[in-house]
Design a protein that fits this description.
The protein is an alpha/beta fold. The chain has a domain of 254 residues: Rossmann fold, CATH 3.40.50. It is built from 13 helices and seven strands. The chain has a seven-stranded parallel β-sheet, sandwiched between helices. Helix 7 links the parallel strand 5 and strand 6. The radius of gyration is 32 Å and the shape is elongated. The termini are far apart. About 8% of the residues have low confidence. Bound molecules: guanosine-5'-diphosphate and magnesium ion. Magnesium ion binds next to helix 1. It is found in: Cytoplasm; Nucleus. One of its GO terms (molecular function) is GTP binding. Binds to RNA polymerase II. It comes from Jimgerdemannia flammicorona. Small GTPase required for proper nuclear import of RNA polymerase II (RNAPII). May act at an RNAP assembly step prior to nuclear import.
Length: 372
């Protein structure tokens, strides 16, 4: 049986994982090659993982290649599947061994700055499969992980294509919940300036839409309002995987995204600690006795007297504010024997009983007077 990954060094020494995702043909693999070459030139070679079982020739050397483990064409034959089913099944089979991949990575992690991951050509095979989620989640549980969403800039110049690409990116952001860098690739063909303008200036996008007279344009009009919020969480860079333009900016954005990941982790850790402290203090308060919780899940009041023989002075004082109708002069508080959450109901019930008793006594008095 495979063993769990070995513990790794301090968090600040952990390498950043960059998961490269994007539509088929957007240039993920070429971009990977460019990143790999760039990091080699900087004397900080990355650890490279290829998760695309259908790529025929990889332009870089991968440390781990899915094709060494599964042959997707064999998978197609064996399970009688088409190409997409074959790729998906190959990825699923590979994921069953992903703990071993994590072990390999963990051994090398102390000497690394980056781990680069190329994903299958067809985006949905990675983003909408259980395997894709398992792979990103297990990596993100240990390493600072960033998604690089690669966009084919020359094919995104039409407002409708731009919008659908952004919606797809948005769905991946919410699915992975990881820091996100939008990479406008192929800027050697078309500059990504138009995209930046559309993302920062709502009116400019509206202007571009006004040339589109189809029924789609009104839908996109409202969608662009929704996406405004999404754009504010993004880091955008324009690159050319072929010429190498913008790669430094890309690594700058990855660093920012790493900081974002760490801040989020610290916040989550602080929340976990807070909950634990609260739990410990609640356990200390109750000492194994039954306690009542308020709507925030906190122990309501540790001093309530379960037996109710003697009402707790201080306790009653505290309750005065929220019991404005209640008569403070009464000697015995009917609510005192109940846990705080039930007190006002108990008091109301007692008041009803008192009123019924009063009216019964009044009637009895009247009838006895009549008899006299
Ligand atoms: N002009 C130009 N072409 C690119 C660039 N990046 C990738 N390509 C081309 O886009 C096509 C698809 O690239 P590939 O990396 O296989 O895309 P993938 O399916 O996302 O992995 C190839 O023909 C690449 O040569 C770029 O920056 N500029
Ligand atoms: Mg590829």
């Amino acid at each position: 049986m495979a063993s769990a990954p070995e513990p790794i060094s301090a968090p600040e020494n952990l390498p950043t994982v960059v998961v490269v995702i994007g539509m088929a043909g957007s240039g993920k693999t070429t971009f990977m090659q460019r990143l790999n070459a760039h990091l080699h030139a900087k004397q900080t070679p990355p650890y490279v993982i290829n998760l695309d079982p259908a790529v025929t020739a990889l332009p870089f050397t991968a440390n781990i290649d899915i094709r060494d483990t599964v042959n997707y064409k064999e998978v197609m034959k064996q399970y009688n599947l088409g190409p997409n089913g074959g790729i998906l099944t190959a990825l699923n089979l590979f994921t069953t061994k992903f703990d071993q991949v994590l072990n390999f990575v963990a051994k090398r992690a102390p000497t690394l700055k980056h781990i680069l991951i190329d994903t299958p050509g067809q985006i949905e095979i990675f983003t909408w499969s259980a395997s894709g989620a398992i792979i990103t989640d297990t990596l993100a549980a240990t390493y600072p992980t960033v998604v690089a969403y690669v966009i084919d800039t020359p094919r995104t110049t039409a407002p409708a294509t731009f919008m659908s690409n952004m919606l797809y990116a948005c769905s991946i952001l919410y699915k992975t919940k990881l820091p996100f860098v939008l990479v406008f690739n192929k800027t050697d063909v078309v500059s990504h300036d138009f995209a930046v303008r559309w993302m920062t200036d709502f009116e400019e996008f509206q202007q571009a839409l006004s040339n589109d007279t189809t029924y789609m344009s009104s839908l996109m009009n409202s969608m662009s309002l929704v996406l405004d919020e999404f754009y504010s969480h993004l880091k955008v860079v324009g690159v050319s995987a072929v010429t190498g333009a913008g790669i430094d900016e890309f690594f700058g954005a990855v660093e920012e995204a790493r900081v974002e990941y760490e801040t989020r982790q610290e916040k989550q850790e602080a929340e976990r600690q807070q909950q634990l402290t609260r739990l410990m203090s609640d356990m200390e308060v109750s000492k194994g006795k039954e306690v009542s919780l308020n709507s925030k899940g906190r122990v309501e009041d540790e001093t309530w007297d379960k037996e109710g023989d003697e009402g707790d002075e201080q306790d009653d004082d505290e309750d005065e504010d929220d019991e404005d109708e209640y008569d403070d002069d009464e000697v015995i508080d009917p609510g005192a024997r109940y846990p705080p959450t039930l007190r006002s109901a108990a008091r109301a019930s007692q008041r009803n009983q008192d009123a019924a008793l009063q009216s019964f006594l009044a009637q009895a008095n009247q009838s006895s007077r009549m008899e006299e």
